[in-house]
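Thread: Newbie trying to understand structure tokens

Hi all, I'm a second-year student working on a class project, and my supervisor (Dr. K.) asked me to get a predicted structure for one chain before our next meeting. I've only ever worked with sequences, so writing a 3D structure as a token string is new to me. If someone could post the tokens and maybe explain what I'm looking at, I'd be very grateful. Here's the chain:
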Amino acid sequence: MNAHSEKKPAVLIVAAGSGERMGEGGPKQYRPLGGQAVLCHAIRAFQAHPGIGEVRVVIHPDHRADYDVACGSLGLPEPVMGGKTRQESVLHGLKALAENAPERVLVHDAARPFITESLISRVLEGMRHSPAVIPVIPVVDTLKEVIGQHVTGTPIRSTMRAVQTPQGFHFAPLLKAHERFAGTGATDDAMVMELAGHDVTVVEGEMRNRKLTTPDDWRWAQREREENMVIVTGQGFDVHQFVAHPDGTPEDARVVRLGGVSIPHSHRLEGHSDADAVLHALTDALLGAAGAGDIGQHFPPSDAKWKGADSEIFLKEALAKVQSEGGRVQHVDVTILCEAPKIGPHRDAMRSRLASLLGLAEKRVNVKATTTETLGFTGRREGLAAMAVATVAFAG
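---
Reply by user tm_fold:
Sure, no problem. This is what the structure looks like when written as tokens:
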């Protein structure tokens, strides 16, 4: 087959379990880990891989609201409703994928959030030579066969392997095998292919690609995520000119908007939106940390719909972008440069508003103000400027 004519393999992520062994805290696939749900880590890993096509998720019917909150912004097709067993859920997912006739498919457990590009690539390469490929890792402990309280055998450890996902398959044989052996209680998809008589080959798995099942697994995952976070900083700068309020503006409406707070002032700031220079600078800082360009690209002043817009919209969108990339804002620091208005009396209100918008404790938000000693346009009171720095933690 011509490699250039091949469809990219589809991915089926199985997230229909209840996760009861994990203990309290809700379904494990929707628990926040490093700023996003466990399931989202797996989804993003596949979406980011250049060799992957459609990504489809199988969920428990009772978890639809959790799924929409966690994954609603990821641009995925409609989720598939799972069945009573994992095997039944996979079959439901395969039938949904069949509508687009993929040639190959990877099946992955949602509870494995540490899937890497290199592991996905190894499975993809293995699928070129075998109808079924599974990643495995060595078994380090001696294994015993046990019935009741009695040992009945000791398998040879050197031939034993622990199996992981994603498992890769030629699509048509896997769907046929699942239909033929439905209800047999297979614990993974390779077992179904074995029952159908297909050869199953292995590639090297990764110790870090651990399935989260117990409270101990969860504690390990939290430590692992924290230890592998990458700290990134973004910076932003914005300037706006002061102009007179329109004639007839009521006294209580003669304000300047800064950091989401209305401050009484003789002049207002000129801009296409509400000209909140603090929120604009902070929006750029977050976009910079996410490597997502600048505020003008996302909210161009040439677009009439942003005329007079509340700049909190921009900040919220930038925050959502950071979070969609797996980032978590740790701290922001803002400096306002102006001769007037006086910022000091409004600093606490500004910190409180910014903390609320960003979901941060107030101690993680700093607001400073300074003058330019009457120099330049700020010194002449022609306008003001704002600078912002955002510190964001991203998964490594």
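A couple of things are worth pointing out once you decode it. Residues 215-227 form the longest helix (13 residues). The domain at 229-395 is CATH 3.30.1330.50 (60s Ribosomal Protein L30; Chain: A;). Feel free to ask follow-ups in this thread.
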